[in-house]
Amino acid sequence: MRITTTITAATQSKIAPPLKFVAPLFNWLPFILPFLAALLVYNLTAADGLTWRHAGEDGGDLATAVALGGVPHPTGYPLYLMVNRLFLLLAPNPARALIIASAFWGAMAAGLSGSATTNFCRIINPAGKAVVGGIFSGLALAFAPLVWSQALIVEIYSFNLFLLALFYLTLSWWWEKPSYNKLILVALVAGLAVGQHRTALFSLPGSIWLIFIVKKPGWKQIGLLLAVFLLALFSPYLYLLFCGGNNPAANWSDIGLGNLAGLWEHLSGGDYRQYWLAAPLSQSLGRIPASFNLLLQQFGLVGLLLGWLGLMACFLEKRARPLGWLSLSGLLLYLAFAAGYAADNSQIYLLPAFQLWAILSGWSLVWAINQLPSKVSAGWGLGIALLTLLIIPGLSLITNYTKLNLSGLHEAESWATTTLKTAPEKAVLLSYHDSTTFALWYAQSVRKFRPEVAIIDVRLLDKAWYRRNLKALYPALKLVEGADNPAQIISNRPLITVTEPDIYQPNELFQP
Fold it and tell me: Hey, which of 89, 290, 340, 342 would disulfide with 278, CB 3.0 to 4.6 Å?
């Protein structure tokens, strides 16, 4: 007996250290696997430069602002500008560097969403296979076509999803073991997310309700949390005060200490406020079934059913109801905004709803496995989980790889460079589209092609700040004040109207 005890103790002493190392690594899998898988696939399929594909028209404006330390269109995205300047060190072409950034933030969003899902699973179903649910959630989000598409171009949406994933992760940390310090962190990340993109507000009502259900903070604590939230929301905008006026090629609203109205234009959404809830009722109603069809395209029939099952199961189990309210309120608000927003491709605003659906689906998978009869072996449950992992993310990866692949593409950059090179001497290029204006801005101001050619977006000519920018950027250009058409506004130069080229393609991913 003594010999057996001695051998057992010795064996345990040898096994324990490896187990101590393996267990934390296992717990990290919901982050590691989705992050690495997404990062690899995103970089293999990412564009090589500025492209119009996947609704990437704004890429030229964003890349110009980041490269020149300027200000892009409202709402300005100051946190995006500051953080992504670091990525300019990774490639000589700023557009390519920012595409690498999109791929990184998209992969981080998948990994952090997986981690948040794992935490939610452990809180609600402590005995469940939480790691499997987290891995599934992260991979399902990573290879949802619309999410994947935004990680391949110069755009803000991958960064938005990263901040929301970080918000849900901090919220799950607090829920798992409530403390006031963790709640301050939740408020900080929430403020950064809303400051980056206003639609993040739609994640807050359900989150606040979750907090009040789990452990209501005191009134003094609520006041401090609100202060932290507002500070995180507004403080990045101080960066725009230093950027405004740096370069007339990237200087929307002419922001500066002498023009705080321009800062307010960006904070409040400027010209884009008119689109909120402005879509005709018939169009809004038509977008609702189209949005459900788009949801089906992201996760397939199995993923769609898992999400519905998860939402229903949340309200069936009392301890899961906070997650149910968080998910339901967010889904409805994001759907209402996307349906009512009076602009093409408004379905892009459903991305956070897809993120919530992925979290729900991962939790639902764990919940369903836990409902299996006790006679069913753990091996069967694990087999079902692995099969689900292959069916949804795996099938999406296989079927969408060729469709989404942008490797080698930089057609917007090439078109803009060619257009500038072939323009007559001292020509004035008149643009009426974001796709053409932003690509030309980038090619001229960042890539340094034909600085003497004037690029004018006719839609902006009625704005005083834009006319000031034109005078600063093209000193030799004569602008006739008070004229009401481009032929009168610009004199003494040949005028060329720029149209969208044949290679320009609307984003097919938004077609339900």
Answer: 342
Tokens representing residue 397 in the block = 């990866």
Residue carrying structure tokens 């999410």? 147
Exposed, middle or buried: residue 126 (CB in 10 Å: 0-12, 13-18, 19+)?
exposed
Tell me the average pLDDT across 84-107: 96
Q: Phi and psi for 94 in degrees, rounded to 5? A: -55, -35
First vs last Cα of the chain: how many Å apart?
71
Helices (H) and strands (E) in the chain, counts: 21, 5
At 221, the amino acid letter reads Q
pLDDT tens readout for residues 454-466: 999 998 988 888 9
Amino acid at 338: A
Mention every residue, 6+ apart, whose C-beta is less than 8 A from residue 316.
none
The answer, yes or no, to whether residue 402 has pLDDT greater than 90, is yes
| Mean pLDDT, residues 208-235 taken together | 93
DSSP for residue 512: -
Structure tokens at 496: 């060329």
In this structure, which amino acid lies at residue 179? S
The H or E element spanning position 113 is helix 94-124
Structure tokens given for 486: 């481009």
Is the pLDDT confidence value at 258 over 80? no
Residue pair 290/345 in contact (Cβ under 8 Å)? The answer is no
Q: Tens digit of pLDDT for each residue in 407-424?
A: 999 999 999 999 999 999
The one-letter amino acid code at 6 reads T
Could you tell me the pLDDT band of residue 495, with boundaries at 50, 70 and 90? confident
Tell me the residue type at 54: H
Q: What is the C-alpha to C-alpha distance for residues 427 and 439, in angstroms, rounded to an integer?
A: 17
Average pLDDT across the chain, whole number? 87
| H helical segments located in 69-93 | 78-84
Q: What is the pTM of this model?
A: 0.92
d(CA 265, CA 262): 5
Structure tokens belonging to residue 210: 């979750």
The two most distant CA atoms of the chain are separated, in Å, by 104
Task: Please check the confidence at residue 4 and state whether its pLDDT lies above 80.
Answer: no
Q: Which residues of 195-232 are buried (b: 16+ CB within 10 A; e: fewer)?
A: bbbbbbebbbebbbebbeeeeeeeeeebeebeebbeeb
Contacts of 411 (CB under 8 A, 6+ apart): 51, 52, 53, 503
DSSP sequence for 322-384: HHHHHHHHHHHHHHHHHHH--STTGGGGGHHHHHHHHHHHHHHHHHHHHTS-TTS-HHHHHHH
pLDDT value for 7: 40
1 SS3 class = coil
Q: Do 95 and 59 touch, CB atoms closer than 8 A?
A: yes
d(CA 52, CA 30): 33
What's the one-letter identity of residue 472? A
Beta bridge partners of 430: 456, 497
- Beta carbons of 346 and 338 less than 8 angstroms apart: yes
Report the C-alpha gap between 279 and 284 in whole angstroms: 6
